[in-house]
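Researcher: Re-running this chain for the archive, since the previous output was lost when a drive failed. Same request as before.
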Amino acid sequence: MTTTPPSLPELPRVGDASGLEPDPRFYPEELQLAFRNHAIVLEGLSRFRLVHEIDVTTAFRQIEADCASFSGDKDDTAPLALALRSDVEREARRFADTRGYAIDWDAVARLDDEALVNAVAQVAPFDVAAKQAVLEAPDIAARADLVAQFLRFFRLDDSNDDATMQ
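Model: Regenerated structure tokens:
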């Protein structure tokens, strides 16, 4: 029986397996080593666009990828302008307050710019189109600006928890 492999994300990432950690989803910590249930830790290095999938008989999929339009992903990111970082933090706080979320704001303040923007984008209940727009932004400053705008939009549209950007 032949199965069709799942589709790849619209904008996948090239990465490295950077570690192996116990997986708490299966067993309590004291049993994890005994049962050898671990999670592979992946570190994304660069986004890419799928050119095409190569027809192979290996146990894993192979593709031709174009990383050229994301060459900046590998560079160290410059810090965000203070006003932009403040905007993201302010909008995240307003959004969380509006939704009644409990957040450790001292821990948030200690995050570096990229961790802050990426964490907010991951946990905020943005629709798929908004998350895709953040993912495709060319750099951290553009992602931060989009995250702040989406936080404002989704906070102000409190009439519908399933609001979408059209």
